[in-house]
Amino acid sequence: MQISSFDIEEKFIRGGGAGGQKINKTSSCVWIKHLPTGITVKCQLYREREKNRAAAYKLLVAKIEQVVAWRESKKAKEVYKIRRQKQKRSKRAKEKMLEAKRRRAEVKRGRGEIVDSR
């Protein structure tokens, strides 16, 4: 996928977390937004702004590809499968399942007791 530089908004902001005064004074954290999709990425892995910028772009491309090709994605298929499994059964499917269980219970009840012939 080709990403145009006109489609990207980029800011350099101050980072947060551990690091003392240095982290509070420098703007090494990179914030990138892809305007057509609205995906935002914030990266503060390294001390250097350029390393953070490169890492942010890699992360942005990965996120965009995930959104664009989510149906073919292995992860998306796993998420869809789990969501489908947890989904509530329809009323018709539930009735059908319960009817099958009742029939099976009748078969089991009709077997009778096992008698030991020793």
List the topology elements.
Elements: E1 8-13, H1 21-25, E2 29-34, E3 39-43, H2 49-68, H3 74-86, H4 91-109
Antiparallel strand pairs: 1-2, 2-3
The count of domains is 2
Radius of gyration: 29 Å
Architecture (CATH level 2) name of the largest domain = 2-Layer Sandwich
Characterize the quaternary organization of these chains. Answer: single chain
Number of helices: 4
Q: Main sheet: which strands, in order across?
A: 1-2-3
Distance between the termini: 78 Å
Shape, principal axes of CA atoms:
elongated
For the record, the CATH class of the largest domain is Alpha Beta
Structural class: alpha+beta
What percent of residues are in strands? 5-15%
Structure, described:
The chain has 118 residues and is an alpha+beta fold. It has 2 domains: 5-68, Double Stranded RNA Binding Domain; 75-109. It is built from 4 helices and 3 strands. The protein has helices spanning 21-25, 49-68, 74-86, 91-109, and strands at 8-13, 29-34, 39-43. Strands 1-2-3 form a 3-stranded antiparallel β-sheet, covered by helices on one side. It is elongated, with a radius of gyration of 29 Å. The mean pLDDT is 84.
